[in-house]
Amino acid sequence: MLLEVKNVEYTYFQKGKLFAKDRQFHLGPVSFNMQQGETIAIVGNNGSGKSLLAKLLAGAINPEAGEIIIADTEDGRKRHNTIRMILQHSADALNPALSVGSILHQTLRLNSDLKEEARREKIEDTLVKVGLLREHYHFYRHMLSDGQQQRVALARALILDPEIIVADEPFAALDPSVRSQTVNLILQLQADLGLGFVFISHNIGIVRHISDRVLIMDKGVIIEQGKTEAVFSNPRTLLTQKLVQAHMSLVDKHFDQKNA
Prior knowledge:
By secondary structure, the chain is of the alpha/beta class.
Protein backbone atom coordinates (compact mmCIF):
# COMPACT_ATOMS: atom_id res chain seq x y z
CA MET A 1 0.00 0.00 0.00
CA LEU A 2 1.37 3.42 -0.99
CA LEU A 3 -1.10 5.77 0.73
CA GLU A 4 -3.61 5.34 3.55
CA VAL A 5 -6.15 7.97 4.55
CA LYS A 6 -7.63 7.19 7.96
CA ASN A 7 -10.63 9.10 9.37
CA VAL A 8 -9.44 12.48 8.10
CA GLU A 9 -11.51 15.51 9.14
CA TYR A 10 -11.28 19.23 8.50
CA THR A 11 -13.64 22.17 9.15
CA TYR A 12 -13.60 25.06 6.70
CA PHE A 13 -14.90 28.52 7.62
CA GLN A 14 -15.84 31.11 5.02
CA LYS A 15 -16.61 34.69 5.98
CA GLY A 16 -19.91 35.86 4.53
CA LYS A 17 -19.93 38.85 2.16
CA LEU A 18 -22.14 41.87 2.92
CA PHE A 19 -25.42 40.45 4.30
CA ALA A 20 -24.58 36.79 3.72
CA LYS A 21 -24.01 34.58 6.74
CA ASP A 22 -20.68 33.03 7.61
CA ARG A 23 -20.44 29.50 6.28
CA GLN A 24 -18.99 26.39 7.88
CA PHE A 25 -18.23 23.17 6.02
CA HIS A 26 -17.09 19.97 7.69
CA LEU A 27 -15.18 17.32 5.76
CA GLY A 28 -15.05 13.77 7.03
CA PRO A 29 -14.38 11.43 8.44
CA VAL A 30 -12.88 10.22 5.16
CA SER A 31 -10.98 6.93 4.77
CA PHE A 32 -9.50 5.14 1.74
CA ASN A 33 -6.20 3.71 0.54
CA MET A 34 -4.16 3.69 -2.66
CA GLN A 35 -1.88 1.08 -4.20
CA GLN A 36 1.23 1.76 -6.28
CA GLY A 37 0.32 2.87 -9.81
CA GLU A 38 -3.42 3.07 -9.10
CA THR A 39 -5.78 5.77 -10.35
CA ILE A 40 -8.53 6.93 -7.99
CA ALA A 41 -11.21 9.39 -9.12
CA ILE A 42 -13.11 11.58 -6.67
CA VAL A 43 -16.50 12.62 -8.02
CA GLY A 44 -19.31 14.76 -6.60
CA ASN A 45 -21.33 17.92 -7.04
CA ASN A 46 -19.91 21.38 -6.40
CA GLY A 47 -19.42 21.93 -2.67
CA SER A 48 -19.13 18.22 -1.88
CA GLY A 49 -15.61 18.60 -0.46
CA LYS A 50 -13.60 17.18 -3.40
CA SER A 51 -11.14 20.06 -3.74
CA LEU A 52 -10.76 20.37 0.02
CA LEU A 53 -9.80 16.70 0.20
CA ALA A 54 -7.32 17.23 -2.65
CA LYS A 55 -5.59 20.02 -0.71
CA LEU A 56 -5.37 17.79 2.36
CA LEU A 57 -3.82 14.97 0.33
CA ALA A 58 -1.27 17.30 -1.24
CA GLY A 59 -0.29 18.78 2.13
CA ALA A 60 -1.52 22.29 1.31
CA ILE A 61 -3.51 22.15 4.57
CA ASN A 62 -3.27 19.80 7.54
CA PRO A 63 -6.15 17.64 8.81
CA GLU A 64 -7.67 18.48 12.18
CA ALA A 65 -8.22 14.81 12.92
CA GLY A 66 -7.19 11.49 11.40
CA GLU A 67 -4.04 10.59 9.48
CA ILE A 68 -2.65 10.64 5.95
CA ILE A 69 0.00 7.92 5.95
CA ILE A 70 2.60 7.56 3.19
CA ALA A 71 4.33 4.19 3.19
CA ASP A 72 8.08 3.97 3.63
CA THR A 73 10.23 2.62 0.80
CA GLU A 74 10.99 -1.08 0.72
CA ASP A 75 14.32 -0.50 2.48
CA GLY A 76 12.61 1.49 5.26
CA ARG A 77 13.55 5.00 4.12
CA LYS A 78 11.02 7.83 4.34
CA ARG A 79 9.60 8.98 1.03
CA HIS A 80 9.94 12.69 0.14
CA ASN A 81 7.93 14.79 -2.31
CA THR A 82 5.72 11.74 -2.79
CA ILE A 83 2.55 13.73 -3.57
CA ARG A 84 2.40 16.69 -5.96
CA MET A 85 -0.63 18.65 -7.14
CA ILE A 86 -1.92 20.07 -10.44
CA LEU A 87 -4.56 22.79 -10.30
CA GLN A 88 -7.53 23.27 -12.61
CA HIS A 89 -6.38 26.61 -14.02
CA SER A 90 -2.72 25.95 -14.79
CA ALA A 91 -2.16 29.53 -16.00
CA ASP A 92 -2.86 30.86 -12.51
CA ALA A 93 0.04 28.79 -11.17
CA LEU A 94 2.54 30.11 -13.74
CA ASN A 95 4.22 33.45 -13.01
CA PRO A 96 3.94 35.50 -16.25
CA ALA A 97 7.21 37.30 -15.43
CA LEU A 98 9.25 34.09 -15.38
CA SER A 99 10.22 31.73 -18.18
CA VAL A 100 9.28 28.06 -17.99
CA GLY A 101 12.90 27.23 -17.20
CA SER A 102 13.00 29.72 -14.32
CA ILE A 103 9.76 28.39 -12.85
CA LEU A 104 11.06 24.82 -12.88
CA HIS A 105 14.49 25.90 -11.59
CA GLN A 106 12.74 27.39 -8.55
CA THR A 107 11.04 24.07 -7.79
CA LEU A 108 14.33 22.17 -7.97
CA ARG A 109 16.32 24.77 -6.01
CA LEU A 110 13.84 24.60 -3.14
CA ASN A 111 13.45 20.83 -3.09
CA SER A 112 16.69 19.25 -4.32
CA ASP A 113 20.48 19.44 -4.01
CA LEU A 114 21.08 19.45 -7.77
CA LYS A 115 23.62 21.91 -9.20
CA GLU A 116 22.57 24.34 -11.94
CA GLU A 117 23.78 22.23 -14.87
CA ALA A 118 22.03 19.12 -13.52
CA ARG A 119 18.87 21.15 -12.91
CA ARG A 120 18.91 22.40 -16.50
CA GLU A 121 19.28 18.86 -17.84
CA LYS A 122 16.48 17.52 -15.64
CA ILE A 123 14.18 20.38 -16.64
CA GLU A 124 14.69 19.79 -20.37
CA ASP A 125 14.26 16.02 -19.98
CA THR A 126 11.02 16.58 -18.05
CA LEU A 127 9.66 18.98 -20.69
CA VAL A 128 10.23 16.32 -23.34
CA LYS A 129 8.59 13.72 -21.09
CA VAL A 130 5.34 15.75 -21.03
CA GLY A 131 5.32 16.27 -24.80
CA LEU A 132 6.97 19.69 -25.00
CA LEU A 133 10.24 20.72 -26.67
CA ARG A 134 13.52 21.50 -24.96
CA GLU A 135 13.17 25.00 -26.48
CA HIS A 136 10.06 25.60 -24.33
CA TYR A 137 12.58 26.18 -21.51
CA HIS A 138 12.82 29.78 -22.78
CA PHE A 139 9.09 30.38 -23.26
CA TYR A 140 6.87 32.59 -21.08
CA ARG A 141 3.25 31.95 -20.14
CA HIS A 142 1.77 34.20 -22.83
CA MET A 143 3.68 32.25 -25.50
CA LEU A 144 2.00 28.95 -24.56
CA SER A 145 -1.40 27.53 -25.52
CA ASP A 146 -3.78 26.29 -22.80
CA GLY A 147 -2.70 22.73 -23.45
CA GLN A 148 0.99 23.66 -23.26
CA GLN A 149 0.42 25.53 -19.99
CA GLN A 150 -1.21 22.40 -18.57
CA ARG A 151 1.82 20.37 -19.67
CA VAL A 152 4.15 22.81 -17.91
CA ALA A 153 2.06 22.40 -14.76
CA LEU A 154 2.40 18.64 -15.17
CA ALA A 155 6.16 19.01 -15.67
CA ARG A 156 6.43 21.00 -12.44
CA ALA A 157 4.57 18.24 -10.60
CA LEU A 158 6.71 15.49 -12.15
CA ILE A 159 10.11 17.12 -11.82
CA LEU A 160 10.54 16.03 -8.19
CA ASP A 161 9.84 12.39 -9.13
CA PRO A 162 6.64 11.97 -7.07
CA GLU A 163 4.75 8.71 -6.79
CA ILE A 164 1.28 10.31 -6.60
CA ILE A 165 -0.17 13.21 -8.59
CA VAL A 166 -3.31 14.92 -7.25
CA ALA A 167 -5.09 16.65 -10.15
CA ASP A 168 -8.02 18.95 -9.33
CA GLU A 169 -10.26 19.18 -12.43
CA PRO A 170 -7.18 19.21 -14.72
CA PHE A 171 -9.21 19.00 -17.95
CA ALA A 172 -12.03 21.45 -17.22
CA ALA A 173 -10.45 24.44 -18.99
CA LEU A 174 -9.26 22.48 -22.06
CA ASP A 175 -11.10 22.07 -25.35
CA PRO A 176 -12.09 18.47 -26.25
CA SER A 177 -9.18 17.73 -28.62
CA VAL A 178 -6.54 19.03 -26.21
CA ARG A 179 -8.31 17.23 -23.36
CA SER A 180 -8.06 13.94 -25.23
CA GLN A 181 -4.33 14.47 -25.88
CA THR A 182 -3.72 15.27 -22.21
CA VAL A 183 -5.62 12.20 -21.01
CA ASN A 184 -3.54 10.00 -23.31
CA LEU A 185 -0.34 11.66 -22.11
CA ILE A 186 -1.22 11.01 -18.47
CA LEU A 187 -2.06 7.37 -19.21
CA GLN A 188 1.30 6.97 -20.96
CA LEU A 189 3.19 8.61 -18.09
CA GLN A 190 1.44 6.34 -15.64
CA ALA A 191 2.42 3.28 -17.66
CA ASP A 192 6.04 4.47 -18.01
CA LEU A 193 6.59 5.74 -14.45
CA GLY A 194 4.17 3.69 -12.35
CA LEU A 195 2.54 6.86 -11.00
CA GLY A 196 -0.55 6.90 -8.83
CA PHE A 197 -3.17 9.52 -9.74
CA VAL A 198 -5.97 11.08 -7.72
CA PHE A 199 -8.37 12.82 -10.11
CA ILE A 200 -11.00 15.31 -9.00
CA SER A 201 -13.52 15.47 -11.83
CA HIS A 202 -17.12 16.03 -12.94
CA ASN A 203 -16.55 14.23 -16.22
CA ILE A 204 -17.93 10.71 -15.81
CA GLY A 205 -16.73 9.73 -19.30
CA ILE A 206 -13.08 10.53 -18.49
CA VAL A 207 -13.38 8.98 -15.02
CA ARG A 208 -14.63 5.70 -16.50
CA HIS A 209 -11.82 5.76 -19.04
CA ILE A 210 -8.86 6.38 -16.73
CA SER A 211 -9.67 5.39 -13.15
CA ASP A 212 -9.38 2.04 -11.38
CA ARG A 213 -11.55 3.06 -8.43
CA VAL A 214 -13.96 5.89 -7.76
CA LEU A 215 -15.06 7.68 -4.59
CA ILE A 216 -18.42 9.48 -4.70
CA MET A 217 -18.56 12.43 -2.28
CA ASP A 218 -21.52 14.37 -0.92
CA LYS A 219 -21.58 16.93 1.90
CA GLY A 220 -18.03 16.18 2.99
CA VAL A 221 -18.21 12.39 3.20
CA ILE A 222 -17.73 9.44 0.86
CA ILE A 223 -21.16 7.95 0.20
CA GLU A 224 -20.08 5.25 -2.27
CA GLN A 225 -16.79 3.76 -3.44
CA GLY A 226 -15.47 0.79 -5.36
CA LYS A 227 -14.11 -0.31 -8.71
CA THR A 228 -15.10 2.32 -11.26
CA GLU A 229 -17.06 0.17 -13.69
CA ALA A 230 -18.88 -1.63 -10.87
CA VAL A 231 -19.96 1.65 -9.23
CA PHE A 232 -21.21 3.24 -12.45
CA SER A 233 -22.82 0.07 -13.81
CA ASN A 234 -24.74 -0.59 -10.61
CA PRO A 235 -24.92 2.66 -8.59
CA ARG A 236 -26.29 2.16 -5.09
CA THR A 237 -26.91 5.76 -4.01
CA LEU A 238 -29.35 8.28 -5.49
CA LEU A 239 -26.57 10.81 -6.15
CA THR A 240 -24.49 8.31 -8.13
CA GLN A 241 -27.58 7.33 -10.12
CA LYS A 242 -28.22 10.99 -10.97
CA LEU A 243 -24.58 11.54 -12.01
CA VAL A 244 -24.70 8.52 -14.33
CA GLN A 245 -28.08 9.56 -15.78
CA ALA A 246 -26.81 13.10 -16.43
CA HIS A 247 -23.75 11.72 -18.20
CA MET A 248 -25.79 9.33 -20.35
CA SER A 249 -28.14 12.18 -21.31
CA LEU A 250 -25.15 14.19 -22.56
CA VAL A 251 -23.86 11.18 -24.52
CA ASP A 252 -27.27 10.61 -26.13
CA LYS A 253 -27.57 14.31 -26.99
CA HIS A 254 -24.10 14.28 -28.58
CA PHE A 255 -24.93 11.29 -30.80
CA ASP A 256 -28.34 12.74 -31.72
CA GLN A 257 -26.66 15.96 -32.89
CA LYS A 258 -23.95 14.02 -34.73
CA ASN A 259 -26.51 11.89 -36.60
CA ALA A 260 -28.89 14.77 -37.34
